[in-house]
Specification:
Number of domains: 1
CATH architecture: 3-Layer(aba) Sandwich
Strand content: 15-25%
Low-confidence stretches: 1-11, 15-47
Structural class: alpha+beta
Strand order of the largest sheet: 13-8-3-4-5-14
Number of helices: 10
Radius of gyration: 20 Å
CATH topology: Aminopeptidase
Shape: globular
Largest sheet: 6 strands, mixed
Length: 324
């Protein structure tokens, strides 16, 4: 589980960093293209003078001394009306110890408190979409969603990142696929992958972009909680592959981030994010899904759950609480 947590936050930071700065827009020398196909001369790229002071790691941290980020995975795609966030994750990093923690909120959770005296009656994956309909603006809706979930869990959330998971198809294909390990076979004929749908044997399997997306979306052979864990597994495997490929993977990552990511972390925070990501430690990370019976109760006769708010808030206080 700790490997999943670190992979998720690493992927989120990489995507956020790409969206903020483009990564490729540094001061490195770049080859100038030539029509004759011969080697091109290196031309230094000018670096514009900064208009704002550099952001240090401490500038990114909240009053609790942490960096906590709300990561939302959107189901926005052609042919689908609306935009639901089927992946809802709150991740945090302790900049001193490097400890990473991540919590996933299942999409079918209802009655989540979002303000004093107010609970959201619908499935929580529709909250962002409702805020967006009210305001008509993406960033305003994301800001309200961040505030609502911070209230729900009585915790501090500093920033948000919205990622279109369909964008992972292009990224995963560009890095040559990812490897995931299954404890048992996964068969889902409802996935649109040829005539037989998704069929994976137990063991380590190489997934291309479409199979990885199906792997992370399937829930007909198990449940939404297992799907949340598979989403974490896909993102962790993708982040690991990106790290392995290094600079070779950056063009695809940059393209994905520019088109599929929205964040409120400022552009000039890129160097601080890189430093913070480098501090993250695998051995001290935690990962949880707010599933029954420990963190939620199933509503009789339905497939939805309602959170055990006080228990969840206590957990957030232990894992996400202010640093000494």
């Amino acid at each position: 589980m700790s490997r999943v947590a670190l992979g998720l936050i690493s992927a989120a930071l990489c995507l956020t960093l790409s969206a903020c700065s483009g990564l490729a827009a540094g001061s490195e020398d770049q080859p100038k293209p030539r029509r004759d196909g011969k080697a091109a001369a290196l031309v230094p790229r000018a670096t514009p003078a900064p208009t704002h002071p550099a952001v240090e790691v401490d500038d990114l941290l909240g009053e609790d001394g942490r960096l906590s980020v709300l990561i939302l995975g959107s189901d926005l795609r052609d042919g689908v009306i609306g935009e639901r966030t089927d992946a809802i994750i709150i991740a945090t990093i302790d900049p001193g110890s490097g400890r990473v923690a991540m919590v996933s909120l299942p999409r079918d959770t209802v009655n989540v408190p979002i303000a004093p005296g107010k609970a959201y009656p619908g499935r929580i994956n529709s909250l962002y979409m409702e805020f967006k309909r009210e305001s008509g603006k993406t960033k305003a809706a994301l800001k309200k969603t961040k505030k609502a979930l911070a209230y729900a869990f009585d915790t501090e959330i500093d920033h948000y990142v919205l990622v279109d998971f369909n964008g992972l198809v292009r990224l995963i294909d560009s890095i040559g696929g990812i490897d995931v390990t299954l404890d048992e076979p996964l068969i889902d004929p409802t996935m649109h992958l040829g005539k037989k749908g998704l069929r994976l044997k137990a063991g380590t399997r190489r997934l291309d972009g479409k199979k990885a997306l199906a792997f992370s979306r399937s829930r007909h052979s198990d449940d939404d909680y297992d799907r949340s864990r598979r989403q974490q597994q896909v993102i962790a495997a993708t982040a690991e592959k990106v790290r392995q490929r290094g600079l070779a993977a950056l063009p695809a990552l940059v393209e994905l981030a520019e088109k599929k990511t929205v964040t409120d972390i400022p552009l000039r925070a890129a160097p601080a994010l890189l430093e913070l990501a480098g501090r993250a430690k695998l051995t001290s990370s935690k990962s949880m899904v707010l599933a029954p019976a420990r963190w939620a109760r199933p509503l009789p006769g339905t497939y939805v759950i309602t959170p055990k708010v006080l228990e969840v808030q206590k957990m957030f206080d232990r894992v996400f609480g202010p640093l000494p």
